[in-house]
């Protein structure tokens, strides 16, 4: 199983980035997919989630209205469109897959991609 995150980089405040996470080794459409982030010296935090099936989405309050999660089951890929980025969005972003539709235990994690927002 592999979750390969990409799309991170350095951007100025107010800019945009689109993260991608390509999954292999799993039946992607059977998984809820999430994005998390971890800033230096801080604990990892939830950013967004998209469910299997209906594609229902959930966002952390800190990114609501600025970030959009989506998925393409044909490509086994989940995306995170990040607009109006702020310096406080600087972190390593991780994608993760959850098989059970309940709870918060994610089965698989990607390697992370660095997002740096300059002021």
Which blocks of ≥5 consecutive residues have pLDDT under 50?
Answer: none
What is the helical fraction, as a range of percent?
A: under 10%
| Overall pLDDT score | 96
End-to-end span in angstroms? 37 Å
| Strand-pairing-aware structural class | mainly beta
Q: Order of helices and strands, N to C? A: EEEEEEEEEEE
Name the beta content range.
over 45%
Give the radius of gyration: 13 Å
Quantity of strands, as a count: 11
How does the overall form come out from the CA principal axes? globular
Largest sheet: 7 strands, mixed
How would you describe the overall organization of this protein?
The protein has no helices and eleven strands. Strands 2, 4, 5, 6, 9, 10 and 11 form a seven-stranded mixed β-sheet that branches. The protein has a four-stranded antiparallel β-sheet with strand order 1-3-8-7, with no helix packed on it. It is 0% helix and 51% strand. The protein is an all-beta fold and 119 residues long.
Question: What is the element layout, followed by pairings?
Answer:
Elements: E1 2-6, E2 9-12, E3 17-24, E4 32-38, E5 45-50, E6 57-59, E7 67-72, E8 77-82, E9 91-98, E10 108-109, E11 113-118
Parallel strand pairs: 2-11
Antiparallel strand pairs: 1-3, 3-8, 4-5, 4-9, 5-6, 7-8, 9-10, 9-11
